[in-house]
Amino acid sequence: MQEKYAKLFYEFEPQETKWGDWCHSPQAYFRGESAIPGSKLNVGFQVFKAPVFLNKEPHFHREDEYLVFLGAKLPDVFDSWDAEVHFHMGKTLDTMEKVVITDPTIIKVPGGWWHGPLNFVRVDKPMMFQAALLAGNLGSVKYIERKDGERQYVYSGDETSVCVVDPKKKCEYCGYCFSHPEVLPERLYSFVKWNVINEDGVKSYSDTGSYDPNKAPIGPEYVLYPGAKSKPYSDATVLKAPKPPLSPEVTKCVLACPKEETGWGAWCPSPQTYFRGEIYMEEATYHIGYQLYAEANDAEISHFHAGIEEYIFIMGQDPMNMFDFDCEIEFLMGDDPEHMESRLISKPTVIRVPPNVWHCPIKFRRMRKPVLFQAAYLSGTWSVISRGPDKTPDQMKSPHDRKENYNYMGDNVRMCRLEPNKRCWICGRCAKKPEEYLTEEELKK
After folding, report:
1. Residue 425 and residue 410: Cα distance in Å, rounded?
2. Pairwise pLDDT comparison (346 vs 225), residue with the higher score
């Protein structure tokens, strides 16, 4: 494979950490720019096994961040969920709101918004936690007050971070200083206090979180389990007291994940968990799935994404052991469909797909064990452009006609193959009935 494509693949190595018994080790982490130059995404694959209080002071990032809380058993992250998490976020330090998480949930933290503390108050079953920052380097800003009374904003990040135990080394996020607070140097400042407004009651709020049934309707023709829409935020069935309500501004950033029932077949078991960007959350800038691929199959046709980056993650199926990987997968990438190059994947890997680069199909081969497959798309509306049948000379009647024919498909225009008057939800039913929409010639292929 040419170097320009080979450098877009990153093979994960187990990251042994020292955060404490509450955090499963080893972890897998994609650290953006340092792993694949040019990357615009940082994301971790972590499993929390016990309560822990993280990020005790608020901070903000320049870019959007998505926090994902799921049960740590795939594909059913719902039945494997049993936890309660408290999180704070707001546009300013004076308008922070407490969010109580009691179901698999995705939270968007818009760039510039303050967030934290993050408190895992109850973890009765292991849970998978992902913090996806849409940036090539980690970086955050906190607000402090020095002992002389002066206040200032302090930035820390990949570019400036050093180990607190050995300042000659760069911080590797090993967690030793977290589990051994005695090694921390004396702090010469305090954090400026913040205000939580909804513990005293916010009267105007939405009871359904960011989920909009008008965008993702319920019914047998859609992918959602019947009656299994995103639960109302105020559902307090496992709490001693009602959840504090959220303002409309914060409400639209909190999504209790819908449970999706699909019909792709045994190679892609159901249920699935998907964050379908703007379909599920207003003003979303991210789109990702949490799927298991269990059997040999070819996925997708050659296509590219116009102006948008995508990251393909292929990991072991068990979040507690993502390096338990036993399969071979062929991934194609190239300048155009006639000049695709192949790369064989045989260990946990992430692939950065820059804008406008042709890629796929993905050929899942020798699937001795299932894999977790994630396509992380850095836009709220997923779309692809593929090449269709070329036009014949007789069809080229205008000087503006071109021989090559390109097709656009996306969340905003994709229709069902079996029922063309309905929107496609990638439910997979058509995969079981290709004879209903393919020609005889296409079926032979």
Report:
1. 11
2. 346
Region 88-116: mean pLDDT is: 94
- CA-closest candidate to residue 157, choices 174, 132, 136: 136
Instruction: Report which residue type is found at 315.
Output: M
What would the two tokens of residue 149 be?
């009374």
Q: How far apart are the first and last CA of the chain?
A: 28
Which pLDDT tens digit goes with each residue over 402-419?
778 889 988 878 778 787
Q: Residue by residue, what is the 3-state secondary structure of 254-300? A: EEECCCECCCCCCCCCCCEEEECHHHCCCCCCCEEEEEEECCCEEEC
Give the Cβ contact number of residue 254 at 10 Å. Answer: 26
| pLDDT (0 to 100) of residue 436 | 59
For 428: left if phi > 0, alpha if psi spans -120 to 50, otherwise beta; the answer is left
Give CA–CA dist 142/58, Å, rounded. Answer: 7
**CA distance linking residue 143 with residue 153, whole number of Å:** 5
CA atoms within 13 A on the CB side of 104: 29
Helix or strand holding residue 3 (H, E): helix 3-6
Q: What b/e sequence results for 61-93 when a residue is b if at least 16 CB atoms lie within 10 Å of its CB, and e otherwise?
A: bebbbbbbbbbbbbbbbbebbebbbbbbbbbee
DSSP-assigned states of every residue in 98-137? EEEE-SSEEEEE-TT-EEEEEEEEEESS-EEEEEEESSSS
Q: Would you say the pTM of this structure is higher than 0.70?
A: yes
Scored b (16 or more CB within 10 A) or e, 269-283 reads bbbbbbbbbbbbbee
Q: Which residue has the higher pLDDT, 354 or 434?
A: 354
Integer CA distances (angstroms), 443 to 103, 296, 362, 364, 436, in order: 43, 19, 20, 21, 10
CA–CA distance, 174 with 275 (Å, rounded to integer): 29
CB atoms within 10 A of CB 110: 17
Contact 343, 331 (CB under 8 A): yes
Q: Residue 310 pLDDT > 50, yes or no?
A: yes
pLDDT at 96: 94
Q: What is the mean pLDDT of the chain?
A: 86
SS3 content of the chain, % helix, strand, coil (to 5): 10, 35, 55
Q: What is the pLDDT of residues 151-165, one digit of tens each?
A: 999 998 888 888 888
Please compute the mean of the pLDDT values over residues 373-392 and round it to a whole number.
91
Structure tokens at 301: 């046709």
Q: Which two tokens stand for residue 217?
A: 């309707």
In the block, residue with structure tokens 């964050």:
275
Tell me, what's the pLDDT at 225? 47
**Which residue bears the tokens 């997968």?**
329
